[in-house]
Amino acid sequence: MSGLPLLTLLMVVPLVGSAVIWLLPSASSRLAKPIALGVSLLTLALGLVAWGQFDNGSSERYQLTETHSWIPQFGVSYALGVDGIALSLILLAAILTPICLLAAWNDLGEDAEPAREKTYFALMLILLTFMVGVFAARDVFLFYVFFEAMLVPVYFLIGMFGGPRRQYAAVKFILFSLVGGLIMLVAVIGLYFQGPGGDHGFLYESLEGAVGGSTATQRWLFVGFFIAFAIKAPMWPVHTWLPDAAAEARPATAVLLVGVLDKVGTFGMLRFCLGFFPEAAKWATPVVITLAVISVLYGGLLAIGSRDLMRLIAFTSVSHFGLIVLGIFAMTTTGGAGSTLYMINHGFATAGLFLLAGFLISRHGTQRIADYGGWQRVTPVLAGTFLISGLSSLALPGLSSYVSEFLVLAGTFQRYQWAAAFATLGIVLAALYILLTYQRLFTGPRPTFVEAGEPRDLGLRERVVIAPIIASFLVLGFFPKPVLDLVNPAVKQTLQLVGVTDPAPTNASGSAK
Amino acid sequence: MTALSTAMPTAFQAVQIDYAALAPMLVIVGAALLGVLVEAFAPRGSRHMIQVALTLVALVASFVVLALVSVDHQTVTAGGSIVVDGPALFMQGTLLIFGILGVLTMSERFGGRSADAFTPMGAATPGSPAEANAERAGFATSEAFPLTLFAMFGMLMFVAANDLITMFVALEVLSLPLYVLTGLARRRRLLSQEGSLKYFLLGAFSSAFFLFGAALLYGYAGSTDLAVISRAITTANGDLEGLLLPGVVLTLIGLLFKVGAVPFHSWTPDAYQGAPTPVTGFMAAATKLAAFGAILRLAYVGLEASRIEWRLGVAAIAVLTMVVGAVVSVTQTDMKRLLAYSSIAHAGFVLVGVLAFDVTAVSGVMFYVLAYGLSTIAAFAIVFLVRSGGSEATHISQWAGLGRNHPVVAGVFSLMLLAFAGIPLTSGFTAKFAVFAPAVAHGGLAGIVMVVVGVLASGVTAFVYFRLIVLMYFTESTADDVVVALTPSIASTIAITVGALGTVVLGIVPGPILDLAGRVSQFIL
Fold it and tell me: Could you tell me the pTM of the whole model?
């Protein structure tokens, strides 16, 4: 590993970028957007360098590590390091951020106040810092710090720039997240005293497989972490903040929120709930699996019933997060790898849906699905790309989500046949909510536009935004190997910590009948 | 020292006094007396400047003396009644910093002739011709500054008091000037006087409780010295056992009153609302710190051995304090009352740490009150700036849209709110961690329950703070009156800046201060 602290740089670059934007004099506030985009692309480049330095075959649990003492009195270190799962999620954040910045280019309109525009883009960049931090942390306390701190920029992004009910949505978002976080705080404190302690007592390596205490204590700690992650993920029945937040947020914010931030929940389940409390995780599995299956079905049903386009996409995410959690708690390598891959694929699929929905809404000014119809005759490219995103979301073979969804279901089936069977119904629901939505939005007679004139199809900027997302569907659909190679060792190591082996006869390709 | 305090002297002997250890207190009380003379002899026009300068010089000098001289004289002195040990020095230093910041905000004139916070004539009937005449004649209650020094003297002694009598004297010395200061607000005089009177009456009540408790403990142990009481408890043979618990309860009530713990909190919102806003900030930060200093010493040095008997009771008070403070703050519409209830909730959080009974808890509590005090002084200094038609815009609806018109003021205030809510990377989070961690580690089941209640209460208070941020940033101003933030003088700017910097620094790099607090957290018996 080179001496360069890559992960720190990945956080510092956007942080400095956002500070620069904030300090821009009003006269040159036009530079805010180009600077933000440039900085996010630089971050992405650094992320790719990090990927290049990451060694899939290494036996090290964490790579690219940096460790410095931070608050030794609490056992807290500033420690970074990634395994394949964390790195892939960092890359997801680094790829989606420039896309979102470009998508948000004209969000505030031509005549936006300079201060407002600066704030908007600076907040997005600072959010990138926290997103990288939360996945790159190798210290529970540091993870918690980022976990909570990233609420603040999202809160402002929703509350300052969102739709008409933004205040309600912002407060609801922050309260749900904060309550989850505070419950986790108790568990974080408790975890330290059950671990080896000392100046570096919060390091993942110190804690993995080393959490002591009675069975009851471990279960309580597990529950403390799990509630926070379930709210974040979000799972039924603590998902209710998501539709409001997604519906009121700007599409770009919604992408980062649902596509990346919420992954912290499932990432945390994999890393903390399974890694630190294997026994408790096994104890809780029946309940978690049940909740996950309910999430899959309930999210799908509510999506079908949604009249608001953004809420609909949010509910599809509830359904998909249910599948991800299912794959994690199936505790098979197939399921685990599938879930991790799903986190990535879901990030892109949701990004496609949210951003295209945003483009559509910016043309018509309403989120009500019923107000649309026949738009494929007006905006064929928009309709086509929306359909591809939707098909990816419903896991059409050949598109990315199919691979991950198959792996999750196959992995789950190895242990929990019934759960897998019920979850498969979710795919049927997915076909319904995607195709019905497409039908309502885009098919039918050509709409008439009386006042505003005929809306234009996707412009160049919008095509540039959507092209990499569509490309990801195809690449990850046909050739998921690079990502699977990246995440598989990490998944195996996590399951080793749990101490489970795949049910015999194991078969890595998941030939689950 | 034990021989000194227990053995009956055969003849009167002058006690040994280590003047170097007491020097910080002596500087303050000397300057306070000098300030009274200034009030008597200096011409009216120059009093403000002289008083402010004298007060600041005294506070800084006291701090320097403490940091350079007293630290090397950690000892029990003055016949066992004052103990200058690590916790005492840490808290005295913190108090002096609070004093400096508080005086800086109190000195704010906004271009006028005298301090803007204080009425020209405290004795005049509100709205009477006498008051108007006093205003016109250029009267000013610049005695507020010596009063602050007297209160500071009491606080410095309070955290170093090693016997119940000294503690009681210190309690009175710190309280009486605060009662007066509370009644000196320039605007909304009636509210100010009401707050002052309530504070005084309830404060007198609590003093009586404390004194009665002290008397019972004296009856039990044969001494008011904390170390002797502690020894009496451990070597108890069952005699007079009935005096112990009532004595403990009554003394604790007296002290819990000062920190505003529920159900002894009812003075807090009224006094906080009525007092001149800079005084509120000073009072909230410094009184709370001093009272927790005394509670720590009483609980850890004097009554620790009997904690089984009273710990759960105080734990119940802590839970009640957190819950009531948090829940009631939701319904507040006045900014100062809201911050008052928030301070009640914070007192509950600190109590959680106190009840952990571990040396790490001492440092955690000291860190908490330091972090909270810095943020609080700055927060009230900002409340003081936000005006509508000259008087303070304390109704929270008046703060709508402040973020748009005064981004810096609103930004700094939001930072304080984030700290109060305990968001990571602010001092509030580190502080909460510092008190909750010992409670989980050493507090047993009760500690864990308290921490769980604590985090839930934090969630409730966070709702309150985030609602304020929503109001400042996301809501358009609807009020008919024009709300402006006055431009602060250099003095207030320094105070606000130090508070804000402290909030950030203690959140991001708390290591050095935690380390210091950890090294000095051992009480000398």
Answer: 0.87
